[in-house]
Every structure is written in structure tokens, then in C-alpha cells.
Amino acid sequence: MQAVVTCRKAGTQDVEALFTLIEGYARQGIMLPRSRAALERMIHTFVVAEVDGVVVGCGSLFKLGTDLVEIRSLGMTDGYRGLGIGNKLVEFLLQEAKEQGLHKVMALTYAVNFFERNGFHVVNKEIFPEKVWTDCVNCAKQHACDEIAVLKVLN
Ligand SMILES: CC(=O)SCCNC(=O)CCNC(=O)[C@H](O)C(C)(C)COP(=O)(O)OP(=O)(O)OC[C@H]1O[C@@H](n2cnc3c(N)ncnc32)[C@H](O)[C@@H]1OP(=O)(O)O
């Protein structure tokens, strides 16, 4: 029987799964760490992907301005990468952004090809307002950021 993949908004019952997933990538320097308390506070910004009811991926939308939002904390658990679930999560996040009336979606990432396949293009980091960099104070690489900025403008 084929596995059922679904995307949905996260709830407080997902905090532990999100914490574990993000912590794993934070240790590899791919994501910023998020405490359980912070996740609880920001849970309304998160979406999750489930396979047969088990959380295998997540992503979040962080509002940066009246029309600009950032995709953050996007990742799959081991064994679930490369199965098209990331594409589904991004689609879901873009739909969420649209419903919130936000038409410019950006991300800072190393997975540039993945975002390009989802209709984003590489842009100069300098085009974003100062506000974008609020989270960077928590990043070990803040003075040597090598992530690439990508942007998608929604119709
Ligand atoms: C803003 C941020 O949060 S950036 C952090 C991004 N997260 C990470 O780097 C964590 C590690 N990676 C992952 O968790 C996942 O691989 C993700 C989120 C990047 C992509 O999710 P997946 O489910 O693996 O991607 P999916 O299977 O939908 O792949 C879609 C396409 O992107 C490509 N792709 C997937 N991951 C990557 C990557 N890291 N770099 C480049 N291309 C990629 C795939 O080859 C695939 O191409 P295809 O459609 O021609 O086959």
C-alpha cells in the first residue's frame, strides 16, 4: 500500500517532533536552533508533513514586512529526503503565504537547487530590509554568512 503524505498546520502536540528535527540540523549548522519554549510560542508559524500520521518534515513562515515572508526551518527527517515531500511542504507554505496576503517569499539556504526547482530565484541579500537579519544575532555564522538568498514573487 502506498504511503499517504499530508501537510498541515502544526499544533502544540508537534513541539517535540519539531524540536528533535530542528536540533539535528542545528547541530550540523544547517538551521538555527529553536528551544521548546520558542517552538511553543511560534507554533502557529509552523507547518508539518506527515507520512501515515507520523511527522517527517517541517517548515515555518516568518513575517518580515507587509508583503514579505521568510521560509525558515525547512527540513525532512532522515530517510524521507528526496521523496518529493519537500516540494509538497513548500507548496503548502506558499499557499499559506498567499492566504495571509503575503506575496514575496524569501529564504536563506544552502539548498539553492531545491528552491530553484520550486520557482525561486537567487537574489542579492542586500535587497532585503534590515529587519530580515533580526534572527542572525543568534547565528554562529553572523559575521561570515555564506547562505544564499532566494525569492519567489507570488501572483
Ligand atoms: C530556509 C531553510 O530552512 S534552508 C534549510 C533547508 N533544509 C536542509 O537543507 C535540511 C536538509 N535537507 C532536507 O531536509 C531536504 O532535502 C529539503 C528540505 C532541502 C528538500 O526536501 P526533500 O523532500 O528532500 O526534496 P524533494 O524530494 O521534494 O526534492 C525536490 C527536488 O529538489 C532537489 N533537492 C532536494 N534537496 C536538495 C538540496 N539539498 N540541494 C539541492 N537540490 C535538492 C531534489 O533532487 C528534487 O529534484 P527533482 O524534482 O528533479 O527530483
Automatic annotation (TrEMBL):
It comes from Paenibacillus methanolicus. This is Amino-acid N-acetyltransferase. Gene3D superfamilies: 3.40.630.30. Transmembrane segments: none annotated. GO terms for biological process: L-arginine biosynthetic process. Keywords: Acyltransferase, Transferase. GO terms for cellular component: cytoplasm. Residues 5-155 form the N-acetyltransferase domain. GO terms for molecular function: L-glutamate N-acetyltransferase activity.
